[in-house]
């Protein structure tokens, strides 16, 4: 049975589609560094918004555990934030002393008496009491604004109103869509829900954030699919990916820039493995459909569904196989500073024009 005991993003022993991209665009040395000594992750507002939208749509229970809609007062300056942080983290028992200390840490005290500082500090602490209490909570959720929550609801409404997007994401109803949280139960249910002849009783299974650990060309691989639907009766696979974008009506540019077809091809290979190894099905007997669901983030939150034809997926397979072969060579030799061609030849490398 597939082992996914290590969370997807923590498992640096396996190769993802993003890793393939690093290898192709930045070379083996960069890939090796990212897998052995990755730098601290930097916050990116665009990526954070995309993750927020994904979780709201695909993992609603996880969303409720992670985020809180905050409509109360918040600091309006760096000094107020520093004051609140200091007051929330203080070990001083006497309230006035704690407020005075936090004020001195956050604000200029030149020309101010302690009475004046305490008076101003008490006022700030009263105004931002809810926020300070929030900071004191060790299990606090991540804040989102009412504006962001309205954005999420608008996106959800637009998906539900779309004549295809809703059926792709929730083909059997949202309450029956499986998420990564219960993946071992998913696998158990797939393997046991068969009749005496080995025929699947449950015709359709829909997965969100579906984690597959698999192997190809001697390389340990991993994939995390936004959405996967398996129709066992009709032997049909639907793979889809959500993409937030500011260029919804020029989306071809993003598809080419980020090679989304290669991403879907990599997912397709993972599903082939999953059907054969975990479901005991012959992948060649199944038909595959691929979709990218584009979500506008510029204010209209419009939804467009792009169907990716199988020949577009097939066109990226050789690129993946070649990259995996090269990565397997680097893994086996431990040589990462240059390309394989560099090591095998005289040091020159071929231009692919």
CATH class of the largest domain: Alpha Beta
Per CATH, the architecture of the largest domain is Alpha-Beta Complex
Please tell me what the overall shape is: globular
* Spatial arrangement of strands, main beta sheet: 3-4-5-6-7
**pLDDT averaged over residues:** 91
Which class best fits the helix and strand makeup?
alpha/beta
Please, could you describe this protein's structure?
The protein is of the alpha/beta class and 353 residues long. The chain folds into two domains: 225 residues, Lambda Exonuclease, Chain A, CATH 3.90.320.10; 59 residues, no CATH class. It contains 16 helices and seven strands. The protein has a five-stranded mixed sheet, with helices on both faces. Strands 1-2 form a two-stranded parallel sheet. A hairpin with a 6-residue loop joins strand 6 and strand 7. Helix 5 packs across helix 8 and helix 6 packs across helix 7. The protein is globular and about 80 Å long. About 6% of the residues have low confidence.
